[in-house]
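FIELD: query
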Amino acid sequence: MKRAAIVCHRGASLKAPENTLAALEVAIADGVEVVELDVRPSRDGVLYVHHDETVDRTTNGSGRFGDMFASEIDQLDAGSWFSKDFAGERVPRFSSFLDACKGRIAVYAEIKEGDPAEVRDMLQARDMLEAAWTFSFDQAIRAETRARVPDLRLMVLFDHVGSVERAVAQGAAILEFQAHNLDVDLAESAREAGLITQLFYDGNDRSVFELAIRCGIEQMNIDHVDVFRSVEESLLAPAQ
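FIELD: result
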């Protein structure tokens, strides 16, 4: 049985403020294979790495992200809410984040808002497109991705498509499960159809990790990396 690739959800978000360069650096230092990030544009069209519709939860500012100009976003403190040790950490521009990733870690870009073609072009410009993929909860963005940038690999959720066949029909490269819809047969049928299997799970229940390993899930989109690796180590260790 092969070890799963780790997709670090919003970077190492338990050890550093999510979606920041600090969280990225910790994820790289921890040896994970992929960083998951969220993309949003400023009012003047600059792409940033930021999750929420507002800046209130993860910065010292307030208001809708999309109503703010880049010059305003660049001044926000995105670290103090997490710990004083990260005071002054900025909301990273997507371009700067990709520059920090290049040659070091692969990228999974969830597009909250923005042009998938621009995301694709920024990845391609850095020779990062082949290992990257994208997803959006916005159905229109997913459709636009399929139509305009078919060379940017697309992930779909099993909750959205309901079957392996529909995932294939939508041109997906990756099918993401959650704990409530994962089973061995589904995971196997996805792999047989040529899909990469992934599990999103932001908890730390070892039984969920055990299930993922027994299902042969290839990529783990998680927060609790250390717990998963511990479970994986115990299950994959050769019998004495």
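FIELD: remark
The chain is about 35% helix and 20% strand.
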